[in-house]
From TrEMBL:
<protein>
    <recommendedName>
        <fullName>Cyclase</fullName>
    </recommendedName>
</protein>
<comment type="similarity">
    <text>Belongs to the Cyclase 1 superfamily.</text>
</comment>
<dbReference type="Pfam" id="PF04199">
    <property type="entry name" value="Cyclase"/>
</dbReference>
<dbReference type="InterPro" id="IPR007325">
    <property type="entry name" value="KFase/CYL"/>
</dbReference>
<dbReference type="InterPro" id="IPR037175">
    <property type="entry name" value="KFase_sf"/>
</dbReference>
Amino acid sequence: MKDDIRLLDLPLKPGDPPFSAWGYWGPEDEIGTLNWLSKDVVRQAAAEIVSGARFSLNWGLNMPTTAGFGRHECRLSHTIYQPGPMLALDEEVSFNTQRSSQWDGQRHFAYQKEQLFYNGVKLEEILSGSSTLGMQNWHKAGGLAGRAILLDYWSYTEAMGETYDAAQEAHAITFDNLMACLQYQQNLSSTPIIPRQGDFVLIRSGFTHCYQKLKADQERAIATVSAPITCGVEQDVRMLEWLWEHRIAAVGGDAPAWEVLPPTCKGSAGFLYHEVLIAGWGCPIAEYLWLEDLAEYCKREKRWTMFLSSCPLNVQGGVASPANLMAIL
């Protein structure tokens, strides 16, 4: 039975990369953990809509000001023009899908040592013109919709009397502290915050909160440093196990990479989450999410679960997409 497969059973085939689940949903699968978004999962998630409050989780397309990770600048270009004699306007928008709030798709990151993408796809196949692992597969599956849990780690640390600079420090959010944050929120909440199959897990690190306070030279410094430095989740096998055992469909947060960089591996955990989640499980990662308004509402209402909906760009062979995320409570 597939449900009996645990993290320690991965990989499924000898020679596959560490913790990879290639073949779990079949050798031709192209949507990975989105397979856990069954009709029953989505229908049950709709029960999270109680007040009708809704929040866009999308940062402006012009943010952050400076592109990080050595990327081409590719600034947002927005042109409005009148195409003909009638009073009507058209527009053209161009941008890098790795800027602002985004989904990292299956084509975005590979296992670095093995040089293989999800389910063993090679770079040559992607660059040959094939649409394998492209964003269009998420649309064929019906997009992304389900229950989400917000782990407001930034507010938790404030409540604990701790401080750190989420925009300029490589602060490692440990597995133990995330579980403590979850328990802290559960103690305040009147409804259960128990992870279940198909959930999305969002982590508020405080990055966008702190980013807004940066001066121009500080903003450029964190984006142009030779080795990326960013706060995020510490690489820990226990975190992988938690995500896998709870059948989490996707993860996301307000930080630039979701995981801490440079990596600070707990114990013998020698991996990047981008490798295992994206290339190993086909699990989408959302970055640079705007969680400030949502977090404030959740804190006030003492409720951290919600219905989440996203319809990324339908680009044949697409690598990533603006998140297009909405939370409804």
